[in-house]
Amino acid sequence: MSNLADIQNLDDIRLLVDSFYTKVQQDNLIGPIFNEKIGNQWPAHLERMYRFWQTILLEEHTYSGSPFPPHKHLPVNKEHFNRWMEIFTETIDSLYKGKLAEEAKLRAKNMAEMFFYKIEYFRNGGRNFFES
After folding, report:
1. How many Å apart are CA 122 and CA 55, to the nearest integer?
2. Furthest CA-CA distance within the chain
3. Containing domain of residue 69, as a range?
4. Which of 83, 101, 126, 129 is the 20 to 30 Å CA partner of 60?
5. Pick from 81, 71, 7: which is nearest to 45 by CA?
C-alpha cells in the first residue's frame, strides 16, 4: 500500500517541477538539449513551470503565454519526447498518487505528442506526415 498523497497545492507543484528538472538536467539524452537552451536561466524557467503546472492542475491562473514557440526549433525527435515522458512519469509516480497526479501525466503526454507533431510539421516545411 502506498502512502503517497495527491498533488494539492503550489508546494507540491514546486516539488514536482524541481524533482523533474533535476533529473532532466542530469539525463544523458535530453539534459544537454535543455542545459544548452536554458543556460543560466534555470531559476526563471522553473518559475515559469511552477506557474504553468499551477494553472493546469490547480486551476489557479498564474501562467500566461504560449508554451510551444520556445520549443519550435529544438534538435529533438521522438526518442527525446519519449525520454522526457519517461522521466516525468517516474517523477510523478515517485512523489504522488491520485486524480491530479494522473491528470498531470495525461496532460504531459498530450503536450509531448502535440509538441512532437508540431515540431515535425515545421521541419517539413508545413507539411504533415500524411502528405507526400
Report:
1. 28
2. 52
3. 10-123
4. 83
5. 71
Integer Cα distance of 132 and 126 in angstroms: 12
Q: Is residue 131 part of a domain?
A: no
Dump pLDDT digits (tens) for 79-113: 999 999 999 999 999 999 999 999 999 999 999 99
The total of structural domains in the chain comes to 1
Report the alpha-carbon angle 72-65-117, nearest 5: 30
Distance CA(12)–CA(77), nearest Å, equals 30
Task: State the Cα torsion 120-123-128-131 to the nearest 10°.
Answer: -140
Tell me, yes or no, whether 33 lies in a domain.
Answer: yes
pLDDT tier for residue 129 given thresholds of 50, 70 and 90: low
Any idea what the CATH number is for the domain that residue 29 is in?
1.10.490.10
Q: Model pTM?
A: 0.89
pLDDT tens-digit map of 16-54: 999 999 999 999 999 999 999 999 999 999 999 999 999
In a domain, 128, yes or no: no
